[in-house]
Amino acid sequence: MEKVYTRQQLNFSHEVNLKEHFELFSNKVNFINDFSLEESEQDEEIFNLMGIKLKQDTKDLLKDTCSFEHLAESTLKTIPNDKKGMKKLHDSSLKHIPLEAKSLETIKNLEANVITKNRSVKEYTDFYVNGLKYRSQVEIDDTNFRHLENLKENDEILLFIRIYAPFRYIPGFKTSWIPRFSHEIIVSGSNTVQDFCKKILCPSDENVSYDISENPDNLQPTKGKYKSCLIFIHDTLYHNAKDSNYVDYSEVVMEFSKNLNYGVGPFKKELMDNVLFKDLKLKLGYPYMYQHQGDCEHLFTISDIRLIHSSDSLCSEDYPRFACASNKITRRCMMCGTKEACYIVRNCDRIPSDPAYMCEICFKSYLYIDGKKVGNFKAYVYFESSYVC
Ligand SMILES: [Zn+2]
Ligand SMILES: [Zn+2]
After folding, report:
1. From the CA of 204, how far away is ligand 1's center (Å)?
2. How confident is the model at residue 308 (pLDDT cuts 50, 70, 90)?
3. Is the pTM of this model over 0.85?
4. Closest ligand to the CA of 163
5. Cβ-count burial 97-107 (b if 16+ within 10 Å, e if not)
6. Per-domain residue ranges of the chain
7. From the CA of 206, how far away is ligand 1's center (Å)?
8. Could you tell me the pLDDT band of residue 124, with boundaries at 50, 70 and 90?
9. Which fold has domain 137-326?
10. pLDDT tens-digit series, residues 72-84
């Protein structure tokens, strides 16, 4: 696949054998939980682990310089609420920049965009808040810390997987499509690829693919009907076609990859419920793929892998779990303009636009009287992943 997405185009890591890498790493860092060690002995272990040999004075200086205490004061917390205070902040910010730091790109950017421009309090706040990298996503906590803690700190790995909204590719047409982040899932090393698959949210799973206008309260989403799916990670296609009720999506890709002219493959194939994440080999940042509901395809990337901390849920049943989701609601009700749309109405003689997107309240209050359909129209469920979270 690296002939298609090359290292020059994308920034991704070398291949990581998770089992090998994290077993070794877990053994090395287990001294962190050894409470019999003095702080100085722990520091010594950390320096040994990093392979650094320094004099005690230099170690003390390094420890002091890297202390968390230096992070205690946030710029955002000190934003004043009047013009005079802002002027003072600008002046003091300029005063405290050491000459040696002026060549740094971050300082140049700070001077050009923040300090030298006399911004109002609102502009200043907007500049920071809008510039925050993760502003467009909301954190989700669906852990249940009340469960039994059956995982040990540093004994399990967690993978952070970012799922992107589905995309459509038309052969022969170049697209300027940019992956749009949808949600992030945390899986543990002991989760199977199938566990991960079941957790992924997509509008096409929740959609109801038939006219619901006669009976809008008894809905059967497509998720329960069409269960076949495919995950591609590294060099393997993981499918769930255990019996004739499933379609094996990997077959056609395996066939396609046999033609060496396309420059993809060779691929292996495996059933996804047999494979644990900790047994995988993969590249961080590389675009892998999830396919379901026929041709609904999502890219996903593994953005981080680390050992489990005491601040994470130590209950294995909490994984996979959601970490965050995009906070963008793309479609609002055309009638009230405030709520999220959850129905698409077609060919309705009482609505001027076709299709019309409507929220639940507008849909049921305008198109039904005492639960009975008024006029002629067809209605379909409209679903956005942000509702579920
Ligand atoms: Zn999908
Ligand atoms: Zn509405």
Report:
1. 5
2. very high
3. no
4. 1
5. eeeeeeeeeee
6. 16-131, 137-326, 343-388
7. 10
8. low
9. 3.10.290
10. 555 544 556 666 7
